[in-house]
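Hey team,

Filing this mostly as a record. A colleague (T.K.) asked me to run one chain through the structure pipeline before their review meeting, and I want the input and output archived in the tracker in case anyone asks later how it was produced. No errors, nothing strange. Just documentation.

Input sequence:
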Amino acid sequence: CDYLSSVGVENGTSLTNNILKRCLTNQLASSFSFRGKGVKKPFVDLSLKSVVVGTVKKQFSGLTETEIEDHIKVWLKHLPQRFKAKTSDPFVIAVFLTSYLSDFIQELKHLLRNSPLFPEKTYSISIHSFVCDAPARAFLKCIKTHSGYSCCERCLKPGEYFNSRVVVTGISAPKRNNRSFRMQLDEEHHIGISPLVDLPIDLVIKFPIEYMHNGTRLSSSKTKEVSRRLKSIKSCIPFEFNRKARLLLEMFDNVSSFPFQNYLGQLKKLVRCPNNPLQVCRRLSEINTLETRINLSDDIFTGQGLKLVHNLGPIPKVLRNIEFEQFKKIVSHNFVLTIHSYSNCDAYCFVKGSFVVQIHNILRNIQTDNIRIVGTRYTRHEPLFNYPFESTRYLPCL
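Output structure:
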């Protein structure tokens, strides 16, 4: 809007808002305010980030795309928690042995410098943060632990021993930064050289202070009470304030180490002997296989994946003395099957023995919950195409 005004466009705010109203869907428009002040309706678009990056690069040629994206991430991370993308549970990408972090750092350096291509699309890799508790942060950064005098990771002021613990007082101490950390200007803070210095990252900002071991954190009841009061005054905040009051609930979940600590405890239980670390990979493979089977069992064989009850048949003569429920559709995580009269597209399947069946009915035994598929078996099938390879490698056939 400021740029439009500078080139002589009148009512820049109204113009941009009208454009966004037409371009953005209502669902995406509920995420954050475009201006934050003076605009009643919020706007957002998934491509807005790329537009901002391109515009800023034109105006400020000295900034790199990474620097611009880092600032955009800081701006976007203040969205209300309910509009943020749901994060997945922790999972293993790789397990490294022998030299401490050596393989991990070499691989990460390569990914940061060379964006991976998958398939026909280039992905930019960046490090959001290293989420660790206090002992793990000290171990990774090779610095004094939280009980040392020069332990503070954000300022240069040494602590004082008070009431059986080290306390850092004051609010005006010089701040640590990436340059002073890498040069180890505060010798009392470092106990060695961190292997992470080989990575092109800020070794201060990229290590958020998580709240797992912070004894001064608010209890759950106090957090709810503060949130309740903030919510109660929300309607009383005047127009001059850029932001309304927000709740404290889930505010620090994106820098919490609780999920990772819990998952690490599960991984440790998979190794019965420290001399056999390969057990971790084998147990994880078994767990993934078992979870797939459990998901299929939960969805189909308990009846949760059966849809569209009907009574049109057919039912084979040998099964007419058994009480069945009839369905038109099976829905699972990995596939959908329907009867031929409902949808010709999903009415075919491969079964054991590598033959094709056209589905005519789906039956569930009311007493045993067993699922039966009634269909016509094809005596032969041929590849849909033979070049550049036979289609039967991926199941399509005639």
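Quick notes for T.K.: The chain is about 30% helix and 10% strand. The longest strand covers residues 355-365.
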